[in-house]
Amino acid sequence: MRIGVLGIDTINETKSITQAITQYASETNSVIEGLEWHTVLSELKAETLESWVRSVSEKTIIENKESFLKVIEAYDAVIVFGGSKKAVDLLSLAQVKLLFLPISILSDSSLGYDTALNEVVTNVLKVKDTISSLLYMKQRVCCVQLPGEELSDLMRDAASAVDGVVVTGGESVWMHAADYLKKKDQKGVTYSFLIINESIRPEQLGAFLQQQMDLDFKELIFDESQCMSSRPTAADRIIEKNLSQSVYEWLKSTDGTRQLTIENKEVK
């Protein structure tokens, strides 16, 4: 049996899952290969599977749809780490047995989310401790940019945890953020957190808000690597363990293509 492993915007801490795949391969004399996108060659190539799965962006898959489908159809089974519904629907067109794993820093029903939220909130609260302890004569705004281009659970939960507000859209929507800042200023609260994603350029939002009121605007930008940790939370450790078992059982079974989900840390 030839097994391929593909990561889509995935996280690093998936060692238990790759160990489960390796265990199955050892028991059945199967071949396992990690699928890695080579930008220079514009090719998806097979590499030795490591303890962590290399990641390719969903955008790359969409732009090179035919190449990806052709490569994965050469396998008996392909295990996909991460990917949105769009990626799942696209790859499901391939004539091969697929297993999709819910791994994402953006969705609260995925492996990696709890750790990402913890990393973001911990670092934002450090900033909050600093700016709330200083006396300042005008509103201080910390604009926190998180990965992704669509409204996510990570944005909503991070905003709730740090007493901030989510900002999306364009200038017509940004006026609500300006009103929010003015109300806080009137209450004597001289610092605020705005949570945005990569669809908004922080400098443009800052320039717009500074036209509405006198404020000090700072940016705090998180990329995907800054939302990960070498020490996952207990919740993510439990989810990873349960996913590992489910992957092993799927490989042993005769089940076809399947998309796993997580509910209360249990795999469905």
Account of the protein in words:
- The chain has helices spanning 15-28, 58-63, 65-72, 85-91, 113-131, 153-161, 171-186, 202-212, 234-252; strands at 2-8, 31-38, 43-47, 55-56, 77-81, 97-101, 139-145, 165-166, 191-196, 215-221, 258-259, 262-263, 266-267.
- The chain is α/β, with parallel strands linked by helices and 268 residues long.
- The chain has 2 domains: 1-110 and 231-265, Rossmann fold (3-Layer(aba) Sandwich), CATH 3.40.50.450; 113-225, Phosphofructokinase domain (Rossmann fold), CATH 3.40.50.460.
- The two termini are 25 Å apart.
- Keywords: Kinase, Magnesium, Metal-binding, Transferase.
- Residues 76-250 form the Phosphofructokinase domain.
- InterPro entries: Phosphofructokinase_dom, PKF_sf.
* Percent strand: 15-25%
CATH fold assignment of the largest domain: Rossmann fold
The beta-strand count equals 13
Uncertain regions spanning at least 5 consecutive residues: none
Number of helices: 9
Radius of gyration: 22 Å
- Largest sheet properties: 7 strands, mixed
Based on the coordinates given, report the CATH architecture of the largest domain: 3-Layer(aba) Sandwich
Total domain modules: 2
* Average of the residue pLDDT scores: 93
Secondary-structure element series: EHEEEHHEHEHEHEHEHEHEEE
End-to-end CA span? 25 Å
Give helix % range.
Answer: 40-55%
The helix-and-strand class reads: alpha/beta
Task: Write down the CATH class of the largest domain.
Answer: Alpha Beta
GO molecular function, one term: metal ion binding
Domain Phosphofructokinase: 76-250
Pfam family, one: PFK
Keywords: Kinase, Magnesium, Metal-binding, Transferase
